[in-house]
Specification:
single chain; mainly alpha; 180 residues
Length: 180
Amino acid sequence: ELSIDVPDEFMGIVIEQLLARKEEGLQMLRRYLAETKDFKTPTVGAVLQAVARLEGAKVGGTVEKLLEHGDPDLRRIALFAYFSEPRDEAELPRVIEFLNSKEGIFAQKRSLISLLAQKNVALFDIVFAEAETSIADEQIKEALRRTAEAVARRKAKGEAAAAKKAARAGQAAAPGPPPK
């Protein structure tokens, strides 16, 4: 039996060490998941995110398989781990299905929307564009609208800051009047 008996505050360090070991670390993390009985611990979510990072966009990976698991809690944790890594538009049906499902409370669905806006911006944009015809719950549609507005504000603020920085750099590089 593989046991990761480490205080919670050090678990992140252990996971990072396993991530650095690439394939060997991935195998150890997979084994931990296979032997875990309690999926509600924060460690499981962290391990799933690490596995998702190592597997990348691999089709049929460990985390993707867990999206079909019989335990709804594990499915939800796997969903968040899965979308903590960049995914393409082929994943749209999976997102729409969760947002329309009776599974998960509104806060979890709002968290997924935020995660997509941070980690999968292109996919978030597609979900937002499809929301009017694909999402049944008005509360979810509103959460998508608010998140899209926040993303647009952040983007505009970032662009303004970049323009200001470029202008300052241009002024510093521009020759001034000759010294007297």
